[in-house]
């Protein structure tokens, strides 16, 4: 259907297509005052067919309504409509009426179009107003979102600055803690050294008798001569010594040491000497023995019978296992105060340490648990280091530390602790590095830091 198309779906009804809508209007016929109205073919309204003379008050009526007037003529109110003949309209009059009706319809259509255009303008104004309001709302939301992002960015920046500040402060605290720990270790080592020197002086003042093997004894002079303290120049081993001693070199008269070993005063050092077995030594006055960096796997029974007065033993960086250490191996060393077993293959703490032990290090081994009697009798132990093992609160007996009444320094770092183990002795000086490198809960770690800062500073 084309715009502004006009058609008549039925007689006396005219329809118009405008703006996508169909507007229809029915033709209103004028009233007739005749006896025999007639509707011609092709016409919409009826006409009068009376042939008699028409009265001066007769009017042409095309409505087809009753000949009785709804509104009597005010000029001739006494005329009888039945006797009043109606003169039929001519074709020109009918065309005039049709033109008038078309003009009326056109005016009505113009009014309708004008009203529709006005309604469209109103709709457009409302749509524009609604669009402006929507745009303002979006701009306001965008402004609020940008403000929120700005505030969030500022908060993140402040949090990052605070975090960096806390990290710097934490590193500074850790540095101070490390310095304090080292100072504490140095002080402790100095005390141990002074104690060892004091014991050595007391021993030098006494005329002591050293137990060698069973019932064999040897007496030493009160003041050893300079010749006895300094070893003579090393001599090249003879063919017989190499054959019988299997690499044994005589460094002092009566003292045989393996190749790669050195002796100085009362100290024997066999570090990185490629030893695979514990060397047999018979030096009763020996007080310090270092076998670090070899491949020793076992310590047999009676390994220390010839060196019973040892005060310090370093067996670090070997291949010792728990089964490879004979029972009661260290028990007979009545003067042993320091024992280092770092970097071996121990899965359990060796049993039967001497009660004189003050410093024990079993770092970087394969310890899988601490039993109740692991430290039995070590009431004088001051320092215990068990870093780098497989220990946790689940495989450590709560009563294991009960015998350590004098323990002041403990390191359990680089293990698998998530909580602080139970049964720690009250004499212990808790340090941040006591559990450094574990997976302790955050609040426990903060508690230990605060506790260490409180007790240290």
TrEMBL record:
The keyword rRNA-binding is annotated on this UniProt entry: no
Pfam families: LRR_8, VWC
Domain of life the protein comes from: Eukaryota
Residue stretches spanning the membrane: none
Gene Ontology process terms (BP): extracellular matrix organization; positive regulation of cell-substrate adhesion
GO molecular function list: collagen V binding; heparin binding
Bias (Basic and acidic residues): 115-148
Keywords noted in UniProt: Leucine-rich repeat, Repeat
UniProt region (Disordered), positions on chain: 59-84, 107-148, 221-246
Limits of the VWFC domain: 6-49
InterPro entries found in the cross-reference section: ECM2, Leu-rich_rpt, Leu-rich_rpt_typical-subtyp, LRR_dom_sf, VWF_dom
PROSITE patterns, alphabetized: VWFC_1, VWFC_2
Any one of the GO CC terms: extracellular matrix
Compositional bias ranges of the Low complexity kind: 71-84
Record's protein name: VWFC domain-containing protein
